[in-house]
Amino acid sequence: MTTLEGPPLAEAAGIGALTLGGFLEEVTSRYSEEEALVFDDPLAGGTTVRWSYARLAREAHRVGRALMAAGVGRGARVGILMGNRPEAVASVFGAGLAGAVAVPLSTFSAPAELEFLLGHAGIQVLLAQREMRGHDYLGDLLGICPDLGRSGPPLRSTAFPFLESVAVVGTANSEGAVRAWTDFLDEADRLSDHMLLARAGQIGPSDPAVIIYSSGTTDRPKGMLHNHRAVTLQFWLQAGVFGRQPGTRLWTALPMFWTAGLNTAMGPTLAGGGCWVMQESFDPGDAIALLERERVTEPYTLPHQTAALEEHPAWRGADLSSLRCVFGKSAFARHPSVNGDPNWNSPVAYGLSETASIFAGHGWDTPRPVMRESTGRLLPGNRLRVVDPDTGALLGPGQDGELAVAGPTLMEHYVGKTRDECFDADGFFHTGDAGFFDAGGNVHWTGRRTEMIKTAGANVSPAELEVALRAFGPLKLARVIGLPDPRLGQRVVLAAVVKEGESTSAEEVQAFLRERVSAYKVPKSVVFFSDGEMPMTGSDTKVRDADLLKLVADRLSPEGSQ
């Protein structure tokens, strides 16, 4: 056997409507007046906002009609530059209802990265928030495209030939092609809901729905185009994987521009009839207060966030007795007030942005000893091959090679790439990850074949940073590596050689990068080497990464720290 197949998709239980509009209509009909979203809004002085499923549906319909009034047609790209807030959720579903493609954009983006994303995605209408934790997004946008504040709508810009307008939450005045959120929504009244629903009725599971951007192995982020079925199927399936149901109160600060936030947190919580307690960006003190006040049942964190919660002064004194979905040895399970459900285990899974998150995994009711043995079993409809990276031959059970995947949640293609450039002749995507499957049908992930650094749940491309540093004059050579870190998984570290006669500091290098890339990509440490000291191949054309990793680890150890 060289192709492992998951259960037939047609036999999967709990699958509902497979378009964003159909999904929202179905969950609203089931849970209409139940609480769907809770958010303390910094743009409204911290006022607590509570939306029912019915309110979410009304707001999503209003966004959809406003997009139609703005001239958004089938397949147009609608950017969403917002943190975790109710308007962002309404924008995702509103775009889907209008037949557009929702493009959640990273709120971590520096202006140069945001400029690239707007152009690469071909955004027609951007839905944004004024600012978040001191980051002035409107200011960034006006700096990137000054004409936004002077002309339109529609904007006419040769730099952004598709962009026509921006609607901004948190600003009171419309000017040029920048519309205040209330003015944008007022345009919805020009169209009836019958028109929106007529359009939504013409949208099918195969239509494009969402573009997710993730750092790639090249110098630029990659955009993955997913259809409606891929996104909504993950909603329904992951509700089962995590055991989400009415009464679930999930808290997470993971953003919706990651598949973890969109397809593992938001969507499956709504699919199960639960409530998402939102936090637009992670702050441990605020998070503890939310966990306690909102009687959260399931916290969803990355390891470094869990560690920050446990280290916070308010942690031990908080009443977290409502937490039920916690697992054995986690910080949440150790909390003195928590008595979790002994039958619930945090799912273990393998997935990637190209498969809209989970591809194979163990569900919440899998015994912990079984979870430790593998990454889990394929989700319904998925297919897996293991390929010899040197010969291209297909391998059988127990043979380690590169994982190649196919299935109903696999992306349509990368934005700007043909399908032939993304998949092999049989339609499989070669992941760059290593692993195997066993005779029992379990998937085993054994590592990453690519250079991607995984830090605090985010992917960082060394090539992206190294290309950016070519413009930093003092450096002769720059190599970015991932150093194992108990909290972050990997820590981004820059190894650098300074040109003869030049001088610089770690702080100057980091400041240079902060202006060009997202903050989480900036190396935590910079280690300088003398000319000729960095380990190179015999031809001096490539750095020997294994040797460099050891040298950097030695330099940063307590005994040799710089």
Query: Outline, from the CA principal axes?
Result: globular
**Record field, number of beta strands:** 29
Structural class: alpha/beta
Share of residues in helices: 25-40%
Rg from Cα = 24 Å
List low-pLDDT spans.
none
Ordered list of secondary-structure elements with their pairings:
Blueprint: E1 3-5, H1 20-31, E2 35-41, E3 47-52, H2 53-69, E4 77-81, H3 86-97, E5 101-104, H4 111-121, E6 123-129, E7 131-132, E8 135-136, H5 137-144, E9 165-169, E10 178-180, H6 181-186, H7 193-201, E11 208-215, E12 221-227, H8 228-242, E13 249-252, H9 259-271, E14 275-278, H10 284-293, E15 298-299, H11 303-311, H12 331-334, E16 348-352, E17 357-362, H13 368-371, E18 377-378, E19 383-387, E20 394-395, E21 401-406, E22 413-414, H14 419-422, E23 429-437, E24 443-448, E25 453-455, E26 458-460, H15 462-468, E27 475-485, E28 489-498, H16 506-514, E29 525-529, H17 545-556
Parallel strand pairs: 2-14, 4-5, 4-6, 6-9, 9-10, 13-14, 13-15, 28-29
Antiparallel strand pairs: 1-19, 2-3, 7-8, 11-12, 12-22, 16-17, 17-18, 19-20, 19-21, 21-23, 23-24, 25-26, 27-28
Helix pairs in contact: 1-2, 1-3, 2-3, 4-5, 8-9
List keywords for this structure.
562 residues; Rossmann fold; alpha/beta; 26% strand; globular; five-stranded mixed β-sheet; GMP Synthetase, Chain A, domain 3; 17 helices
